[in-house]
Amino acid sequence: MTRLTTGVLLSSFLALFAFASGSRDLIGDVLRLPSEAAGFFRRGTAPEDNDAVGTRWAVLIAGSNGYWNYRHQADICHAYQLLKKNGLRDENIVVFMYDDIAYNEENPRPGVIINSPHGDDVYKGVPKDYTGEDVTVDNFFAAILGNKTAIKGGSGKVVDSGPDDHIFIFYSDHGGPGVLGMPTYPYLYANDLIEVLKRKHAAGTYKSLVFYLEACESGSIFEGLLSEGLNIYATTASNAEESSWGTYCPGEYPSPPQEYETCLGDLYSVSWMEDSDIHNLRTESLHQQYELVKKRTANDNSFYGSHVMQYGDIGLSENNLFLYIGTNPANDNYTFVDENSLRPATKAVNQRDADLVHFWHKFPFTVPNFLPSTFSFPSHLPQFRKAPEGSPRKIKAQKEFVEAMSHRMHLDDSVKLVGKLLFGIEKAPEVLNAIRPTGLPLVDDWDCLKNLVRTFETHCGSLSQYGMKYMRSFANICNAGIGKEQMAEASAQACINFPRNWWSSLQNGFSA
């Protein structure tokens, strides 16, 4: 009886497996590929098997260019390598990056990009979907929406997702209240991004979406804007009113190799990726990673850190990371420990000062005559010489630094003066620096904000990456009821002229 029962069960199993295996030779397959039989009953557990979870899609975007912004493209390249090891296919990963770093004349290792002091090359094999002038807001939005006809240039690859699919978006760049940078212009406004995400949801072309955002004031992109019910979970490197931080920068410990004069990564970005590099992502949840990244990015509540935030459908954070970014089979035996063994560097660099860090490490600093006597260079920058005196490299670096500082001082003075002209000397600081209560978006009328920024730039030159910090001031001016005509009059009085250099060029404006 026992033999008969066993025989029936075995016959049933073989018949079932033969049905699943199609026309393949059954006995040969069972003997030759026993793991495949087990896989049939554990469908969805292999990184390359997307059937049980739908297809995993990813959009990776570095929103800057210039060698001083090395870290943003390094972040994105690292993310690509992570996703590839975790089983995602190239056809499901859309990469946006200007691609001017790997073979930049200043890169000490041509053709190589690293994201940590002792890291491997993360550039090799990265798809060149959208590079150079094809890295635009419109192409980014079209890729998310799966709208191939709206794409201009590039590979044409888009997120052609379906209702059972899961989408992961990682954006690394400069930012400001309500805006994110792009290497081309115009920049990206928060309300436009949220509208695109809502359209994606309305189309029914994903099951859930996770958005990781590295930028200054990145919380303002979702604060009061990303509502629940869209099946979107977002985390940001900082809250709505603080900077995010570069890491692995010259002068830090650990610092980049001596030949590097720029930050290799961003604190929030390397935190989530270095965590993902070593953990079994089948068992680690989004929430567990959020807690670890939040602790590391806060840098033990020191000055060199920011507050990682979460928005949207927080309940999605109970999902395992595997659902969105796969997992590396090499980490299958890793037991998750609710303690961060990855410690941050001793110091980090404010994102808005990272360009100055780069210029400084090319030549020893001497305060130019046009700077006020009270000016002091960031204290974390060591004073040593890299470029020989009188060399073309040093002359170029000095010119870039002077132009950058001239642009910064012009913007600082111009925005303050516009505020005084509009609201009076005493009230201006109160209006320009006001912060709305938590839960409210940056501005009530986004069209007003865009118009005021465009008007200011017409008279005063580009805000550029540094000027993003003043977006809250322009939003407050809108919220106070100031219109385009009043802004035009005040800007014309405040800016009789502006520095004629790359940083201030109107071609680099938010609204170009």
Automatic annotation (TrEMBL):
GO CC annotations on file: vacuole
Gene3D superfamilies documented for this protein: 1.10.132.130, 3.40.50.1460
Keyword field contains Hydrolase: yes
Domain Legumain prodomain: 400-495
Signal peptide residue numbers: 1-22
Membrane-spanning segments: none
Pfam families reported in the protein's UniProt record: Legum_prodom (PF20985), Peptidase_C13 (PF01650)
InterPro entries found in the cross-reference section: AE, Legum_prodom, Legumain_prodom_sf, Peptidase_C13
Molecular-function annotations in GO: cysteine-type endopeptidase activity
Record GO biological process: proteolysis involved in protein catabolic process; vacuolar protein processing
Active site feature: H174, C216
Annotated keywords: Disulfide bond, Glycoprotein, Hydrolase, Protease, Signal, Thiol protease
Family under the similarity heading: Belongs to the peptidase C13 family.
Name of the protein in question: Legumain prodomain domain-containing protein
Gene source species: Ficus carica
